[in-house]
């Protein structure tokens, strides 16, 4: 492999030298002089700082304070004059000239078309809270999954990236989410196809994405009604080019190295031997090993990866097309962890019937192959005795050559398994094949062009095959499975299909010079189906797994009316009616209305004549959205499950499997969220600075919740039902601009800040001070609760007692009456008022360009949330030696703390989770013209996850659940990128 990389590197270097040499040619053309003044047409005032450059070259200048400029250029050249907030001008210069260039204010940003639910709208005409992001090709770092492009980029959208496993998806929350037990994931729509849950984005190639549109308030999302309570993310993929018939080819590649940012600070072998002799209280005949093993170094590696993407676009015979192919292979920082993805895509956008009929075809397929690893090896490597060797030989091939904990010549079943063996002996393969696509027809009716008819047929088909094989006598087979060394074979085949049909009519009519109506009405049908076939094989044990299959239908009618008066007063009203087969017929339908008002003040005299404010729009909206995504597909129906072989009934000489009834609620119904939103969009200094501010208040009723019920009242002690209310409030600020823009130098900067809070208002039929629902579970211990008056996922712990010197007293806590107690019962725990939910989060992004060199820096952070360091709470001096005669390592912090036993519920381990992460720094060089004008090359170096600024004592504070336990660290990644266009 090293030889291959050397050859590729030499080839790339030689190509770069040849390209650079071809760039520096001496031109013998005679130059002419051009002088001029740049004037704003509306005010007749000079424009300072306007860029004036020769088209097709990097040569240029800028206008001075009086709008004047001077430039030398070849004969018959074209001058390009541009400035932020103005339309760009091109002027042909054939001889020495004195020019007066008039620039008109540009409404380009306001006229930009953004995708909304079932249609499009000009950005300046939008009445709801929405944000559009087009990934910056020059400042993005390594993006393995599409959500990587959104991290820290949009106010109100908090994305906790996936763990360190390559290809892992993180958590997306828009305005914290509106539910408790039901899904808080936003609805994701890809080219008009709302996709289901279960890693909906991992199979999509980020290089195929053109734009993200995030709908945040109910006015924007209510048109989707069902599943829109938690926001909507609309993804539009790249289309074929409509310019020219010749094909345009783009090739992009990334070569990466991934490293572990930091190790857990545990004792070395020598330190451990010394501590063991002093504190372990082991019998005299117990001997430590003679090895010095750094178990963390044994399980981690430097991960090598590469990513290749090829696309071809063209427009032969007025048939715009785009073909794309991508391949990603990334090794994780844990050994034997690998992720591969192959993508193919096709897009066609022809027009027929004199351009009245538009056809849009999008087809995408992917194959993902992952060799996953268990996070349990991380915990094992942290605590495994450093004096033990990795490899050892035992009689009868026990352990297959790896060290195994033995006692009396037999493996210890309650000991930790050898983490290196767990990685190298387990053969796991998770393969997902997915195809997603749609055919959309849009017909502008002949003779009645104000009316458009649209139909969309879409599908999302996913097949997953998982297999796991562990051989007989592997170390882990003595500590799990049957605990007797017998190997294991697990397989599971999953199939998911999602079909959708949408049809709507759109009528746009300008009634009078200042009045315009845009009305839309439609129908939608969607079908979800899944089938799961699990199988478990253990020698001498019958497989009792049972296939599972079910189907879900959604049926909808929807409509929207937009009214505009003079492009200043904008009104929007929507209504959607949804039916879900999750609910009984009497509760099946939910109705979700919304209304919004926007007032554009840009044309008012006090704004129009302002030199500071260039755009201003006020927005006010209210709407309702629904939620039905909880548990199985039919929680209202009585159903039965076949028993396992451990719960059979004897009938004569036969043992029969029985069917047991499941819990259900026949009255379960829609969860409903109502949202008020007030927004302000603005532009300053001719839109050199643009931004928005949003304030919202949201109330969710009839929460879909999992609650405990009295014994005997149902067939189980926990059911899914509607109970509880929750209120949330917040505000969002987004700000961006270009402080400096000249021909040679440009600096852009963007930032956003979000505050959001949520309080549970009702949780049970009758709420009392002592009512709460436990959550946040690790090893059957619950560390969080849901309680009325508190933020969801509030920590429920014991208040640690300290001595006069501030040192924690082991096993001593402050009870509710202020006395000191040793009891760790729930009665002595308190509501900490601290939650894992993130109330404050922000993102920053900046890019600088000087001629052909660019530098981009991105980062994001949060504060106000808390993390429980279970990794530390689980370590104490008692861990040094167990009754099973097993020795284990501890951290240096546990040694300094000096606790003899684990104190899992002490708030000593509850820490502030505030951080700021330097996501990536990218340095690039662009060659705009290679062998022809439209050929270009960009070379970039980037470093990702460079540093995290935090006071958290663990390895990483960015944990969505707030529970730090065996976290697969996000790696530090170094990337070499090449991007070739021709």
TrEMBL record:
It is found in: Cell outer membrane. Keywords: Cell outer membrane, Membrane, Receptor, Signal, TonB box, Transmembrane, Transmembrane beta strand, Transport. It is a multi-pass membrane protein. The keyword Signal applies. Residues 1-27 form the signal peptide. The keyword Membrane applies. Residues 125-232 form the TonB-dependent receptor plug domain. InterPro entries: Beta-barrel_TonB_sf, CarboxyPept-like_regulatory, Plug_dom, Plug_dom_sf, TonB-dep_OMP_SusC/RagA, TonB-dep_OMP_SusC/RagA_CS, TonB-dep_rcpt-like, TonB_rcpt_CS. Pfam families: CarbopepD_reg_2 (PF13715), Plug (PF07715). Its main location: membrane. Belongs to the TonB-dependent receptor family. This is TonB-dependent receptor. It comes from Niabella pedocola.
């Amino acid at each position: 492999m090293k030889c291959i990389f050397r050859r590729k590197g030499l080839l790339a270097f030689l190509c770069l030298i040849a390209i650079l040499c071809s760039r520096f040619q001496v031109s013998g053309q005679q130059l002419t002089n051009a002088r001029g003044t740049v004037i704003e047409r509306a005010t007749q005032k000079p424009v300072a700082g306007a860029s004036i450059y020769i088209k097709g070259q990097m040569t240029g200048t800028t206008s001075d304070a009086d709008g004047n400029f001077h430039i030398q250029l070849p004969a018959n050249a074209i001058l390009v004059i541009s400035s932020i907030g103005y339309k760009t001008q091109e002027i042909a210069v054939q001889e020495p000239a004195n020019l007066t260039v008039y620039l008109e204010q540009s409404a380009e940003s306001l006229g930009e078309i953004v995708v909304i639910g079932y249609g499009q709208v000009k950005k300046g005409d939008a009445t709801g809270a929405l944000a559009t992001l087009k990934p910056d090709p020059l400042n993005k770092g390594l993006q393995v999954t599409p959500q990587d492009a959104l991290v820290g980029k949009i106010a109100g959208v908090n994305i906790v990236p996936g763990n360190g496993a390559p290809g892992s998806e993180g958590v997306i929350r828009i305005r914290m989410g509106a539910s408790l037990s039901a899904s808080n994931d936003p609805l994701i729509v890809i080219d008009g196809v709302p996709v289901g849950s279960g890693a909906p984005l991992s199979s999509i190639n980020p290089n195929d994405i053109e734009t993200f549109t995030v709908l945040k308030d109910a006015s924007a999302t209510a048109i989707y009604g069902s599943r829109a309570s938690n926001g909507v993310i609309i993804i539009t993929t790249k289309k074929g080019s409509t310019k020219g018939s010749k094909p345009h080819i783009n090739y992009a590649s990334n070569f990466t190295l991934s490293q572990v940012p930091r190790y857990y600070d545990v004792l070395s072998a020598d330190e451990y031997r010394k501590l063991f002799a002093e504190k372990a209280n082991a019998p005299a005949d117990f001997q430590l090993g003679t090895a010095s093993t750094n178990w963390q170094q044994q399980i981690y590696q430097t991960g090598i990866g590469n990513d290749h993407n090829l696309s071809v676009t063209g427009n032969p015979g007025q048939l715009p097309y785009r073909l794309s192919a991508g391949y990603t292979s990334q090794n994780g920082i844990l050994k034997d962890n690998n992720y591969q993805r192959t993508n193919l895509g096709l897009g066609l956008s022809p027009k027929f019937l004199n351009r009245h009929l538009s056809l849009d075809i999008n087809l995408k397929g992917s194959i993902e192959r992952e060799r996953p690893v268990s996070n349990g090896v991380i915990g094992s490597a942290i605590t495994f005795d450093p004096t033990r060797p990795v490899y050892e030989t035992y009689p009868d091939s026990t352990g297959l050559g790896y060290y195994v904990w033995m006692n009396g010549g037999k493996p210890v079943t309650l000991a930790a398994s050898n983490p290196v063996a767990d990685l190298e002996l387990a053969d796991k393969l998770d393969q997902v094949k997915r195809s997603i696509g749609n055919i959309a027809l849009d017909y502008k009716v002949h003779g009645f062009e104000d009316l458009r008819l649209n139909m969309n047929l879409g599908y999302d088909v996913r097949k997953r095959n998982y297999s796991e094989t562990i051989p007989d006598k592997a170390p882990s087979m003595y500590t799990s499975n049957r605990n007797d060394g017998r190997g294991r074979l697990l397989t599971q085949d999953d199939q998911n299909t999602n079909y959708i049909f949408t049809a709507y009519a759109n009528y746009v009519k300008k009634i009078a010079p200042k009045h315009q109506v845009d009305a839309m009405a439609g129908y939608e049908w969607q079908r979800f189906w899944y089938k799961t076939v699990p199988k478990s094989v253990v020698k001498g044990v019958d497989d009792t797994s049972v296939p599972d299959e079910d189907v879900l239908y959604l049926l909808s009618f929807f409509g929207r009316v937009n009214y505009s008066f003079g492009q200043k007063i904008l009104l929007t009203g929507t209504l959607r009616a949804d039916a879900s087969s999750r609910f009984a017929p009497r509760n099946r339908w939910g109705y979700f209305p919304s209304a919004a008002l926007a007032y554009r003040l840009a044309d008012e005299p006090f704004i129009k004549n302002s030199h500071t404010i260039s755009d201003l729009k006020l927005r006010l909206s209210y709407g309702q959205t629904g939620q039905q995504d909880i548990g199985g597909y039919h929680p209202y129906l009585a159903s039965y499950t076949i028993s396992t072989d451990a719960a059979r009934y004897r009938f004569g000489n036969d043992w029969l499997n029985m069917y047991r009834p499941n819990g259900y609620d026949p009255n379960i119904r829609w969860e409903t969220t109502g949202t008020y939103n007030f927004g302000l969009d603005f532009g300053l200094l001719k839109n050199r600075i643009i931004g928005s501010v949003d304030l919202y208040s949201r109330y969710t009723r009839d929460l879909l919740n999992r609650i405990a019920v009295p014994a005997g009242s149902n067939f189980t002690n926990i059911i899914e039902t509607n109970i509880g209310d929750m209120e949330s409030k917040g505000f969002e600020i987004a700000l961006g601009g270009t402080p400096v823009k000249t021909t040679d130098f440009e600096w852009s900067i963007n930032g956003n800040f979000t505050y959001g809070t949520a309080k549970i208002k009702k949780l049970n039929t009758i709420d009392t001070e002592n009512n709460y629902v436990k959550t946040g579970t690790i090893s059957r211990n619950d560390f969080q609760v849901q309680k009325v008056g508190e933020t969801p996922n509030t920590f429920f712990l014991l208040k640690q007692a300290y001595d006069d010197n501030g040192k924690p007293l082991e096993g001593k806590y402050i009870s509710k009456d202020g006395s000191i107690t040793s009891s760790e019962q729930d009665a002595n725990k308190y509501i900490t008022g601290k939650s894992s939910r993130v109330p404050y989060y922000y993102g920053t992004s900046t890019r600088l360009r000087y001629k052909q060199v660019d530098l981009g820096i991105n980062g994001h952070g949060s504060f106000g949330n808390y993390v429980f360091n279970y990794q530390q709470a689980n370590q104490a001096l008692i861990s040094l030696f167990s009754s099973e005669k097993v020795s284990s390592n501890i951290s240096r912090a546990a040694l300094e703390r000096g606790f003899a036993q684990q104190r899992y519920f002490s708030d000593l381990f509850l820490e502030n989770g505030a951080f700021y992460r330097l996501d990536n720094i990218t340095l690039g060089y662009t060659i705009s013209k290679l062998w022809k004008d439209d050929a270009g090359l960009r070379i970039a170096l980037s470093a990702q996850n460079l540093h995290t600024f935090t006071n958290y004592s663990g390895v990483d504070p960015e944990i969505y659940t707030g529970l730090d336990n065996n976290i697969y660290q996000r790696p530090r990644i170094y990337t070499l990128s090449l991007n070739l266009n021709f």
